[in-house]
Amino acid sequence: MGALPVFRWRLAPDGYATRRQLRARGLRPGGQDVAAELQRPRRRRGPLVAYLYRVDLAKPVRPMTPARRAALAKANRARRTCPACRRDAGYLIPASLGMCTPCAFPKPSRALRSA
Q1: CA–CA gap between residue 17 and residue 38 (Å, rounded)
Q2: Cβ proximity of 57 and 28 under 8 Å
Q3: CB 32 within 8 A of CB 58
Q4: From residue 21, how far is each of 29, 60, 78, 110 by CA, in Å?
Q5: 38, 70, 110, 114: which could join 50 in a potential S-S bond, CB 3.0 to 4.6 Å?
Q6: Nearest to 32 by CA among 49, 11, 55
């Protein structure tokens, strides 16, 4: 039961790639386990770790179907809709606010400003 091979930053051999590198090549891990680790040392803290996958076992990215495209558009539309005013904000509503910016920070009325 072997441990994962560990490579230092920028010294991984050919044939290994991170998820992002696979995606840039139009590939995905495809259910394979992590094949190796890449570690970047840091001062006073633990190393940064990136997981590597074998390129020869990677599978092509699944194509975007019309149904998946429609589901993604529906999910993004829900993330743009303000629950307070029910309008499309035109941007993804921040989870920290939970509503669009005008609803979260209403402008004071003129009567309050002149008083």
Answers
A1: 10
A2: no
A3: yes
A4: 11, 13, 30, 55
A5: 38
A6: 55
Q: How confident is the model at residue 1 (pLDDT cuts 50, 70, 90)?
A: very low
**CA distances from residue 70 to 58, 75, 92 in whole angstroms, order as listed:** 27, 9, 17
CA dihedral 38, 14, 4, 45 (to 10 degrees): -10
- 47 token code pair: 């190393």
Give the separation between CA 52 and CA 15, rounded to whole angstroms: 9
Specify the 3-state DSSP secondary structure of 6.
strand
| Tens digit of each residue's pLDDT (9 = 90 or more) over 57-100 | 999 999 999 999 999 999 999 999 999 999 999 999 999 999 99
What distance in Å separates the CA atoms of residue 45 and residue 70, rounded to the nearest whole number?
Answer: 44
CA distance 33 to 3: 12
Least reliable range by pLDDT among 3-17, 36-50, 65-79, 100-114: 100-114
Partnered with residue 36 across adjacent β-strands are 52
